[in-house]
Design goal:
Number of helices: 7
Radius of gyration: 16 Å
Strand order of the largest sheet: 1-2-3-4-5
Strand content: 15-25%
Number of strands: 5
Helix content: 40-55%
Structural class: alpha+beta
Distance between the termini: 23 Å
């Protein structure tokens, strides 16, 4: 299985969420919060798809790539998990670089907050991504589902009911 941007993001947020998602337990399709994020993505920049292209390469899918200026645009609803969002974009830049697209940068956009952050890929980031990819594989292929994290961090997660329904650990 190729590591996707979602795998990378989930690894940084919650190993349990990563393991569940990678092992076919997908709660995003029934989540109102995920739907709200998708709607924000589709409506925030309505003309963007006319200017930029979607790229699918090595397991990742970049919704908006400005090929002329080599810029990845990633739209997020909230900056609650900003570090995970930033590393997800760095992972996209890393995959592009591995496929011959050098010098690309990223823009992490939070339309509701009127906030945009530039994302760059550094030499230490490349090394960290290599290490994270190994750790992601270990989590995904682990025999047991990782434990739950602190409940207060989970309240807006699409897996919340699954993890906290009173059934305990898997």
């Amino acid at each position: 299985m190729q590591t996707t941007g979602t795998h990378f993001n989930y690894y940084l947020i919650c190993h349990r969420k990563l393991w569940l998602f990678a092992n076919g337990i997908n709660m995003e399709s029934t989540s109102d919060l995920v739907y709200e994020g998708k709607l924000l993505h589709e409506t925030s920049y309505p003309r963007r798809s006319e200017k930029y292209q979607e790229i699918a390469i090595d397991g990742i899918k970049i919704d908006y790539f400005d090929a002329k200026n080599k810029v990845v645009h990633e739209i997020k609803k909230s900056d609650k998990h900003e570090e995970a969002h930033e590393w997800q974009v760095k992972y996209y830049l890393y995959v592009l670089e591995q496929n011959g697209v050098t010098g690309a940068t990223g823009l992490l956009e939070y339309p509701r907050l009127h906030k945009t952050d530039e994302v760059l890929l550094t030499i230490p980031d490349r090394e960290a991504i290599g290490e994270m990819l190994e750790k992601i594989e270990k989590v995904i292929h682990g025999d047991q589902c990782p434990g739950r994290i602190q409940k207060t961090k989970c309240k807006n997660c699409s897996y919340f009911d699954f993890c906290w329904s009173g059934e305990g650990d898997l």
